């Protein structure tokens, strides 16, 4: 799991990204967002981005589904094995906050 504090509003952002990700196999990635008091935050939008450092033509993004109470979900299928940089972008009004993590996608 990856977690960080967003600058500005002081939110706690946590991504639940499985340690084992297999190419071509759908993977549930969840994201949790709470305020300083631990209360869920409803964002204007949350998007998941995947960047392949060795081949930008494979980059993709998905809108994450609001599961309620500061919880968001994306069913992600990485097309190729190797290293990927992921980024979850949270929109709140005119502001955007990000949480990133590098992942390794394995052979199925």
Please give a structural write-up.
The chain is 0% helix and 58% strand. By secondary structure, the protein is mainly β. β7 and β8 form a beta hairpin. The chain has no helices and ten strands. The model has no long low-confidence stretch (mean pLDDT 92). It has strands at residues 2-5, 12-16, 21-22, 27-34, 45-51, 60-63, 65-68, 71-76, 82-92, 95-106. A five-stranded antiparallel beta sheet has the order 1-2-4-8-7, with no helix packed on it. The chain has a five-stranded mixed beta sheet with strand order 3-10-9-5-6, with no helix packed on it.
Note the total helix count. 0
The radius of gyration over CA amounts to: 14 Å
Question: How many strands?
Answer: 10
Question: How are the strands of the largest sheet arranged?
Answer: 1-2-4-8-7
Provide the structure class: mainly beta
Helical content (DSSP H or I, runs of 4+)? under 10%
Beta content: over 45%
Cα end-to-end separation: 22 Å
Helix-strand string: EEEEEEEEEE
User: How would you state the average pLDDT, rounded?
Assistant: 92
User: Main beta sheet, described?
Assistant: 5 strands, antiparallel
| Global geometry | elongated
What characteristics describe this protein?
108 residues; mainly beta; 5-stranded antiparallel sheet; 5-stranded mixed sheet
């Amino acid at each position: 799991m990856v977690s960080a504090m967003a600058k500005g509003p002081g939110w706690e952002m946590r991504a639940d990204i499985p340690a084992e990700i297999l190419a071509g196999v759908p993977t549930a990635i969840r994201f949790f967002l709470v305020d300083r008091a631990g209360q869920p935050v409803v964002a204007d939008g949350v998007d998941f981005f995947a960047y392949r450092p060795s081949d930008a033509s494979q980059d993709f993004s998905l809108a994450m589904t609001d599961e309620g109470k500061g919880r968001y979900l994306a069913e992600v299928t990485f097309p190729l094995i190797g290293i990927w940089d992921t980024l979850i972008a949270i929109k709140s009004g005119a502001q955007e906050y990000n949480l990133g993590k590098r992942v390794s996608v394995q052979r199925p």
